[in-house]
Structure prediction request, 112 residues.
Amino acid sequence: MLNTVKYLNSLHIYGIKIHMLHIIKNTKLYSIYKEKPFHVLTEEEYIDTVIKQLELLDEDVIICRITGDPVKEDIVEPKWLVKKFIVLNNIDKEMVKRDTYQGKYAKKKEET
Prediction:
């Protein structure tokens, strides 16, 4: 996911949407998950990954979305994702705690 951000920086995009993989009832992914469950990121793992992505992402790129909006009754995993505003607030709090910001480790445009 971090390499994807580095690649997107090279494309000089204007905006990005970041989504957490979530498993919804009655989908192909749900069938796969039921047959052979796999690891789905915890909230802490997701927050850590998003922050690392933001640090690498060019500061001029607009963040259009950082999480999805699954329907509570349809979501199988991760259950924590339905608390969207808590997740967003926890990302903000963790960024303050780490004293970090979007673009902190992005290469300057002249370098790309």
User: Anything to note?
Assistant: Strands lie at 15-17, 23-24, 62-65, 75-77.
